[in-house]
Amino acid sequence: MITDRIAAGFQGFYETFFPGNSHFTQKDIPDLTGKVAVVTGGNAGIGYEVIKGLLDHGAKVYMAARNPERLDESIKLLEKETGKRAIPLIIDLNSLVSVRAAANEFLGKEPALHMLFNNAGTGEVDELTDEGYDVVFCGNVLGHFFLAQLLIPALLNGVSSAPDGKARVVTTSSVLHVLGWLNFESFRDSPAWRRMFGEFRYCQSKFGGIVISNEFAKRHGDQGIVFTSFNPGSIRTKIYDTMYWFEKWPLYPTQYDASYGAITALWAGTSSETVDMNGYYLVPWAKVGRALEETRDPALGKKLWDWCEAQVQDK
């Protein structure tokens, strides 16, 4: 286990800070006319750039975020840049009630979904949701789990209507998952939650995101839905605003614009090259990578799935 973490860590950080050139660019995105996408956290950073690439190639895109004013501002700016308008979808991933409401709103408007980008991310904060969950784990893992689960019927309709017979679900993770593990007691208010530093809660959430993506891949991959997770690279986003100065300053020389962070996401979500990569972990830029072997532990995957299902029952 320790050897795997060391090896995955060295490889992961090298790929993050020295990604090289990408064989895939936004110009390589195929025509997406007739396809529907949902992007969480789409009003800023990587999500914004993902939506920009999708709109530029003809997709109908729902920008999912929690702040109506920021949504409106971002949609207007994107319209100026692309000449096309994204559709707002209000969702607070830290509220399971809000997640269901957003899913119901989408399902009431669209019969099919072809691409779901679980992109929204919460950084290192020491807060609890109104329902008592760790804000970081709920926003990065549980909320996205519930959203994907609720949208499975639309994704299956997307499979039926897509020319390649596939729908895609792409989850934004991080190289920092190599420093994570799953302490189930820390997912909610508890002594374990209070003892865990915010940095490790973030790493845990990124580890958990890969685990749950892999579990979705096992359960729905044979139905034509392709689930992937990815490391976007060292990207200059608002997540870094939550870090201490001594954590941030060494990263500045290695950071890339958010448009680079969107490259691997768009490759995973649109390219014919990734159509058979169900359950894969991808790295910058547009390459197949290696996540911790623990993220593929079937017992751990089932345990996390069962925990998530128990939380969303009757929500």
Tell me what you see in this structure.
- This protein is an alpha/beta fold.
- Helix content is 46%, strand content 11%.
- It is built from 10 helices and 8 strands.
- An 8-stranded mixed sheet has the order 3-2-1-4-5-6-7-8, with helices on both faces.
- β2, α3 and β3 form a beta-alpha-beta unit.
- α2 crosses α3 and α2 packs across α9.
- It starts with a helix and ends with a helix.
- The relative contact order is 0.16.
Defining traits:
10 helices; eight-stranded mixed beta sheet; Rossmann fold; alpha/beta; 11% strand
Quick structural gist:
The chain is of the alpha/beta class and 315 residues long.
Task: Give the H and E element order.
Answer: HEHEHEHEHEHHEHHEEH
Q: Judging by the overall fold, what is the CATH architecture? A: 3-Layer(aba) Sandwich
Question: At the first level of CATH, what is the class?
Answer: Alpha Beta
Structural class label: alpha/beta
How many beta-strand segments?
Answer: 8
Shape: globular
Major sheet summary line: 8 strands, mixed
CATH topology: Rossmann fold
The structural domain count equals: 1
> What is the H level of CATH, i.e. the homologous superfamily?
NAD(P)-binding Rossmann-like Domain
Distance between the termini: 37 Å
* Low-confidence runs: none
Radius of gyration using CA atoms only: 18 Å
Major β-sheet strand ordering: 3-2-1-4-5-6-7-8
Strand content: 5-15%
Specify the number of helices. 10
The helical percent reads 40-55%
Mean pLDDT: 92
GO molecular function: oxidoreductase activity
Organism: Pterulicium gracile
InterPro entries: NAD(P)-bd_dom_sf, Sc_DH/Rdtase_CS, SDR_fam
Keywords: NADP, Oxidoreductase
